[in-house]
Structure formats: structure tokens, C-alpha cells
Prior knowledge:
single chain, alpha/beta, 8 helices, 12 strands, globular
Amino acid sequence: MHYAVLSDVHSNLDALRVVLKDVDQRKIEDILFLGDAVGYGPNPNECIEILTERCKILLAGNHDWGVLGLTDITYFNEYARVAIEWTRGVLTERNRETLRSFLLKKEIKEDDIFLVHSTPKEPEEWYYLLTLWDAEINFHCFDNKFCFLGHSHQPFVVERLPSGELVTYNKTVRTGKTSRYIINAGSVGQPRDGDPRACYALIDDEKIEIVKVPYDVESVQKKMMKEGLPSLLIERLAVGR
Length: 241
């Protein structure tokens, strides 16, 4: 087992390219994508095309469904709604249909992995998993050893020990034979943990690792300004919030 797990690219082509370069340098062939290819950023078509070409599994996130009209965007904040409307205007029909084929959840039985964008509990409701109480609830909603998710743009690992105790990590974790794990892979294109670097996760037979990769934030900000995307979305890229 050796996977790179990406989430929340949000049309940030520059960040996606540096992450994929890092994945290639590590000689990892199998890439899993957890959703939100689009929204916020300036390159939705390119990101969909590259993700479709490179990823073994492709999931949909709430922004993907928002662009497709499959989920109500009235609960999105005003800046996210503007970006969704802009994305609808520039997305090609071919990429719209590609996005429609993305799954809501997926199980990799041979490696005991469950994949979802938001939470195992009612994934179509786009809940956030932010607390240990959220984690405890959701550990009862899947049977696998590992669950990867995204959505909050904040990377972490929660280990559930055989005793039921929950332990959290934010870097490398050596996996135990009898423990279970929920792993948030963070965000490639819109980090919100105070670190502006692109973020993704790795897993193999021995460990889980959160990886951070620097990219040219200013280049993305200039493209967003050119497209007239909201200034708040532009500014937050530099601070990872």
C-alpha cells in the first residue's frame, strides 16, 4: 500500500502542479482525490483535467456539487458564491460532465480504506469534522481501519486506540495494528491551518504522513485578480487562513 491523498485543490493549478511534482519525486503512482476540484481559484478546467488524468479515485466535494447545481449554495459565504458563479461561467461542458462523474464516497477494500470529502456520517450533508467528539461519532459510521477526508482544509490524524481513547497528531504517525484512523489530508489549493503551503497526505504499510510543499502564491493571486475574483479569497492564500 502506497498512496498520495489530495483534497481541496479549489482551482489552484500552481499548487496542484507542485504537489504532483513532489508525488512523482517520491515515485508514488496511486493518487486519491477527496473532492473540491473547483471553487475559489482561477483554473478550474485545467485542474479537473489534470486530476482526471492522474488520480486513481476521484471524489466530489460541496463546491463541485455547487457548481453543478447539485447542492444549495445559499449557505456558502458570499465570496464562495461569487467564485462558484464565476466557475459556472468558465467551465467547459466536457469538464462539467467529468465533474458530474466524481463519486460521493469510495471504499478500497483491499487496503481497508474509506474515502469521503466531508464525513462518513451523511456525506451528502457536508458536515465538518472538527472536534474529537465529531471524530468519535464518525468512527461509528465506517468499518475500515483508515478513513481519509478533507473539507475543513485543516490537516490532522486522529487515532482511535483499542481502549477507545482518541489521540491526535499533525505530522507523521506510525500506524498500529489494532488502531483505527481518521485522516484529514488538508488542502492543496486553499490551506486554512495558518500555513500557506500546499498540503497533502501519504500512507503506506507503516505510517501516515502530512506533507507541506511551497508554491508561488503570488502567481495565483495575480491570476485571481485578473479574473476579478473576490479580494478576500486572494489575500487569504498568503496567510493560509
